[in-house]
Design goal:
Bac_rhamnosid_C; alpha-L-rhamnosidase; Bac_rhamnosid_N; hydrolase; Jelly Rolls; Glycosyltransferase; globular; 6-hairpin_glycosidase_sf
Length: 769
């Protein structure tokens, strides 16, 4: 961590202070100490910041420093600018003037957050922070710092908000603003803000960057004559647009994920405008609104130069591109099979993760929300850790969780960062306290990361948050030892619940919560043993045993029926290990009966859906699990695929069969939580699972079914790539398994004894039972 000398500075003039200000300073490289051998620029902001040096953008990060729990953690990024300054000093004999600039935007700090209309939750003044450390051949270090000597000016961005969009007036753009050629006319001063640099922390997670650029697949007119562009994929990012037109004319771009009866479907956005406005200069202009982001597949373009309202402008398709933006994540896991609908479902899961892993793991990326809801990540963690290397991304987020938790006596909030604490409390919103599934992320996510990466240091870092959560919940139990007190989301979004009452599920909330507590207490005991904390392990194991005993006494009858007798309660009781022996077998049978009675359509919500296929297959009902997975009628995983979905929906019926959007006020077309079934796909169809943390020892156990004739999966484990491919041919099964060096695997094929596999490639042919 650097020793900080810079200060946090804000613009003086109203025009700059209230908009998206530019900050800059001129400096001269010290010529008396030899060549520049290194130059490191540290940057942060209250808001989001783009650093510039001598007219060039520094780095390719966007929306830096992102969203953290600003009260305790403000992240900074560091950039190596040695080449830029060393080249400059060589060109002018070792000296010369340079310009360092910062462009600021509202971001999460001052922009709108939440669905209650609140702005500037963390502060009402944007500010920039920069510390440039230039080291010379003789060891001398020159510092260039944000301080009161800097100047400020309004930028070409006249409005910016993550929810509402960005407005850019090209007539106000000065391309030389961060160069020595820039004029000083109209620039004002800055003032120093009181700021504790102890809040500055390294950004251990990956930066947010542009990832890919998509061209339109179609440009067309809507039934009402609106000009629409389809990019063929529901994505997160913004539009890059080039145009030439009359100075002062405005191109307006609205974004949406779906069409409704041929028109832009904006109702799911609620109050988010998701609208960018570009004012033309009269020359050739290129716009890219990097201080906002949108969730969209379609855009509506109004004011395109030369648009006569009839023919589709011939130049539009070549002038617009969709820029895909998310945190820089390395893809690690793949899956493909003989069923193309299932392949599309898997692609939808991947795109849902990419769109929602934008600095913070959010619930959705498009409406007036985009918050770090903990319940979604609690169930999706194993899937995320298979598909991408998310260790550092989620490590950073867990640090925010721990900071918020310490301030709330062990409570894990509904969202992290917990911006809801700044919101006016509507009469129908619950008092926040620890909540099953949602708060359990403090335990379930670190354990998922431990199994995926085998990083003991990381598990130890997360351990205090794990124990604090369980200890708090143990103090909330009823006299019967059940977690049946306080507010619970329960089996949120049960498909049988009314659209306007998503918490009204079939599953008893106490059953769900108590099952989750047992899983968390048992997991903390296991984590304690990994870390050598035997006293903790014994204490939490005893607590788990007490919770299980209370669950069995009060929620399971003599015939093995679980209270509320619905699919979710059996799935949780089986998968979380609350039942054993004959009770477990009966629960699996009853679950299979309920799934069949529902016509193999989904009857579970957020709590039960991630576990229902696993509970079926682990109790001998593999065929039922496949039928449930591959069902196409609503509600089902494949119904959205048949409706053209390219991401996972929040509701099974976010779009109704007639092409109209669900009438509820809460529906998103990019919500990864229900995609947690991909974990079962990876473990059961591809057959890849860890037997030891970090896949040092793996289980390769594909279970063909559902009419699939082949499947393949691969995972870049910490030791290298583990891959599986199987194919059915007549009554035979052919499998090829590659095990990375330093690892071993157990191959378990249907009807066959386990085989030990060493590192290398293995080909096996066997007869299916």
């Amino acid at each position: 961590m650097p020793t900080w000398h810079a200060t946090m500075i804000a613009a003086d003039a109203d025009a700059a202070r209230d908009g998206a200000p530019l900050l800059r300073c001129r400096f001269t490289v010290d010529t008396g100490h030899g060549e520049v051998v290194s130059a490191l620029l540290h940057v942060s902001a209250l808001g989001v910041v783009e650093p510039w040096l001598d007219g060039r953008r520094v780095g390719d990060d966007v929306l830096t420093p992102g969203w953290s729990s600003y009260e305790w953690r403000l992240r900074h990024r560091s950039h190596d600018v040695t080449a830029a300054l060393a080249a400059g000093t060589a060109a002018d004999g070792g000296g010369g003037e340079h310009v360092l600039g910062l462009a600021l935007g509202n971001g999460w700090f001052r922009g709108r957050l939440g669905w209650m209309g609140r702005r500037a939750c963390y502060g009402d003044e944007l500010a920039g922070f920069a510390q440039l450390e230039i080291t010379f051949a003789d060891g001398h270090t020159q510092l260039v710092l944000t301080d009161e000597t800097w100047s400020s000016h309004a930028s070409a961005t006249t409005a910016d908000d993550l929810y509402d969009g960005q407005s850019i007036d090209a007539r106000r753009h000065d391309p030389a603003w961060a160069t020595t050629a820039a004029a000083d006319d109209g620039w004002s001063g800055v003032h120093v803000l009181e700021f504790d640099t102890a809040r500055l922390t390294e950004h251990v997670g990956p930066p947010v960057r542009r990832q890919e650029v998509l061209a339109p697949v179609e440009v067309f007119r809507s039934p009402s004559g609106r000009l629409l562009v389809d990019f063929g994929q529901n994505l997160v990012g913004w539009l890059r647009l080039s145009a030439r037109g009359e100075a002062g004319s405005t191109i307006t771009v609205r974004h949406a994920e779906v069409l409704e009866h041929g028109e832009l479907g904006t109702r799911p956005l609620r109050t988010a405008e998701a609208t960018d406005r570009f004012v033309l200069s009269g020359g050739h202009d290129t716009f890219e609104p990097t201080f906002t982001f949108h969730g969209f597949r379609y855009v509506e373009v109004d004011g395109w130069p030369g648009d006569d309202g009839a023919a589709v402008p011939a130049d539009l398709a070549g002038a617009v591109r969709a820029v895909v933006v998310h945190s820089q994540l390395r893809r690690t896991g793949e899956f493909e099979c003989s069923d193309e609908l299932l392949n599309q479902l898997h692609r939808n899961v991947v795109w849902g993760l990419k769109g929602n892993f934008l600095d913070v793991p959010t619930d959705c990326p498009q409406r007036d929300e985009r918050l770090g809801w903990t319940g979604d990540l609690a169930v999706f963690g194993p899937t995320a850790a298979y598909l991408f290397d998310v260790k550092d991304f989620l490590r950073d987020w867990m640090r925010d969780l721990a900071a918020e938790q310490r301030a709330r006596d062990g409570m894990v909030a509904f969202v992290i960062p917990d911006v809801l604490k700044y919101m006016p409390e509507p009469p129908d919103f619950p008092d926040p306290d620890s909540t099953a599934v949602w708060s359990d992320v403090a335990v379930w996510l670190p354990w998922a990361l431990w199994n995926a990466y085998g990083d003991r240091e990381l598990l130890g870092e997360h351990y205090p948050a794990m124990t604090a959560h369980v200890e708090r919940v143990l103090g909330l139990l009823s006299p019967t030892g059940l977690w049946s007190t306080g507010f619970q989301f329960g089996d949120w979004l049960d498909p049988d619940a009314p659209p306007d009452r998503p918490a009204d599920a079939k599953a008893d909330k106490g059953v769900v919560a108590t099952a989750c507590l047992y899983r968390s207490a048992r997991t903390v005991a296991d984590a304690a043993r990994v870390l050598g904390r035997e006293e903790d392990a014994d204490r939490f194991a005893a607590a788990a045993d007490r919770v299980r005993a209370a669950f069995l006494q009060h929620y399971v009858d003599a015939q093995g029926r679980v209270e509320s007798d619905c699919a979710t309660v059996y799935a949780l009781a089986v998968e979380f290990g609350l039942l054993a022996g004959e009770q477990r077998a009966r629960a699996g049978d009853r679950l299979a009966e309920l799934v069949e009675q529902a016509g193999y359509r989904i009857s579970t919500g957020f709590a039960g859906t991630p576990y229902v296929t696993g509970a079926l297959s682990s109790t001998g009902h593999l065929d039922a699990a496949y039928r449930l997975l591959l069902e196409k009628d609503c509600p089902s995983w494949l119904y959205p695929v048949t409706m053209g979905a390219t991401t996972i929906w929040e509701r099974w019926d976010s779009m109704l069969p007639d092409g109209s959007i669900n009438p509820g006020q809460m529906t998103s077309f990019n919500h990864y939580a229900l995609g947690a079934v991909a974990d079962w796909v990876h473990r059961t169809i591809a057959g890849i699972a860890p037997l030891e943390p970090g896949y040092r020892r793996s289980l390769v156990a594909p279970q063909p079914g559902g009419g699939l004739t082949w499947a393949r999966g691969s995972l870049d484990t910490p030791l290298g790539r583990l891959s599986v491919r199987w194919e059915l041919s007549g009554s035979g099964l052919q499998a090829e398994v590659s095990v990375p060096q330093g690892a071993t695997a157990v191959l378990r094929l249907p009807g066959q004894a386990d085989r030990e596999l060493a590192a290398g490639t293995h080909r096996v042919t066997t007869t299916m039972p």
